[in-house]
């Protein structure tokens, strides 16, 4: 069975877009807890930092993360099909 690279890429891009929207909304509505969680994720003390969440940053991140996810999963599917 082959994996359809384009279908997988679109699925990954949509999934990451949804995750980006959820993450951005969480940062907007709960900035302090999200800063604490982010600090734990990177093993750093981020308590002196602040979030900068703008509409342009939101859309740039949405497009960038979705694009990177789509391209990465497309490449994984192509390589998987070549190795099969």
Automatic annotation (TrEMBL):
Keywords in alphabetical order: Membrane, Transmembrane, Transmembrane helix
Protein name as it appears in the record: Uncharacterized protein
Transmembrane among keywords: yes
InterPro entries (alphabetical): DUF5676
Taxonomic superkingdom: Bacteria
TM region(s), chain numbering: 53-80
